């Protein structure tokens, strides 16, 4: 039997999408993938349907480094409605409790925020994509089933109060991967004594990227009318996702052996950590790691184009 040929264009790069509200991250990905007629694409960490903002999409060879964006720190702007607790910890859930907010002051909120800076533990919400015995938690939650979950350690690098306008507050959050902003909002509401939920959420940063550089679906559709060249002009280089890493320049011989999977010794290379790898001609070829003996080991290499 003849193998079915993959359809679509073999493009490579990263698109910063400004995800609209009301659709899942995967639905947004598929919509953009169709516009680009791309053969291979993936996103770098789901946003709730309610949420908007930065969703980096990886095309072609960029999918090989998508895990590094998934692990990168994130930044959010979140509006929390105090005094109302819901089943999903956001405005899409059913109200389960209401409490007065008249006693909540800006000083009280600032004091509460101090408890959530640094390393904290979070209990993953039932309405999440985590699995229990092979089934997504949100599917169990929709059936009215609640299962025991283990708390997880996350890191809140920055937590700033941007606005205090009862019954709502607005926060800027910079956090590690795996942080549930809905859980953070619920916990902050509990800490000030009245409960709360996410009224609006926008992701403003992922790793080195900012939402100010993101493109809306309407913008993409407008570019699509001018052809693929106008769409492709919006793609960022694969290595832009790793711009904060040091680079290592390889000679022709070193690049050859490294592509065979062999660690190589490179003069003046960093002494530890992850690095971007470039072959002669300033061609980015992938990701490496410095070993204890100082050699550079290949970790994720891109196929030659």
CATH superfamily of the largest domain: Pseudouridine synthase
Distance between the termini: 29 Å
Helix content: 10-25%
Given the structure, what is the number of helices? 8
Oligomer status = single chain
Task: Give the rounded overall mean pLDDT.
Answer: 91
How many domains? The number is: 3
The CATH class of the largest domain is identified as Alpha Beta
The name of the CATH topology of the largest domain is Pseudouridine synthase
Instruction: Profile the largest sheet.
Output: 9 strands, mixed
In short:
With 305 residues, the protein is α+β, with helices and mostly antiparallel strands. Helix content is 21%, strand content 33%. The strands form four sheets. Strands 1, 2, 3, 4, 7, 10, 11, 12 and 13 form a nine-stranded mixed beta sheet that branches. It has a four-stranded mixed beta sheet with strand order 14-15-16-17, with helices on one face. The chain has a two-stranded antiparallel sheet with strand order 5-6.
């Amino acid at each position: 039997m003849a193998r079915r040929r993959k359809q679509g264009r073999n493009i490579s790069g990263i698109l910063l999408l400004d995800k609209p509200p009301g659709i899942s991250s995967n639905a947004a990905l598929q919509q953009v993938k169709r516009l680009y007629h791309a053969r291979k694409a993936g996103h770098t960490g789901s946003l709730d349907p309610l949420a908007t903002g930065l969703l980096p999409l990886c095309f072609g060879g960029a999918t090989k480094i998508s895990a590094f964006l998934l692990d990168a720190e994130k930044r959010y702007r979140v509006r929390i409605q105090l005094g109302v607790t819901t089943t999903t910890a956001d405005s899409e859930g059913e109200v389960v409790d209401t409490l007065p907010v008249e006693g909540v002051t800006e000083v009280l909120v600032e004091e509460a925020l101090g408890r959530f800076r640094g390393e904290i533990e979070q209990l993953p919400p039932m309405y999440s994509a985590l699995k229990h015995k092979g089934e997504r938690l949100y599917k169990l939650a929709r059936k009215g089933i609640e299962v025991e979950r283990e708390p997880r350690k996350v890191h809140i690098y920055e937590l700033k109060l941007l606005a205090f306008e009862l019954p709502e507050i607005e926060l800027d959050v910079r956090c590690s991967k795996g942080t549930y902003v809905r859980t953070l909002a619920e916990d902050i509401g509990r800490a000030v004594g009245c409960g709360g939920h996410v009224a609006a959420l926008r992701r403003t940063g992922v790793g080195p990227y900012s939402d100010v550089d993101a493109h809306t679906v309407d913008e993409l559709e407008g570019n699509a009318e001018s052809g693929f060249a106008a769409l492709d002009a919006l793609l960022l280089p694969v290595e832009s996702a790793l711009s904060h890493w040091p680079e290592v320049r390889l000679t022709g011989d070193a690049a050859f052996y490294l592509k065979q999977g062999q660690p190589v010794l490179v003069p003046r290379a960093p002494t530890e950590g992850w690095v971007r790898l470039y072959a002669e001609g300033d061609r980015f070829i992938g990701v490496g790691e410095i070993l204890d003996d100082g050699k550079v080991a290949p970790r994720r290499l891109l196929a030659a184009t």
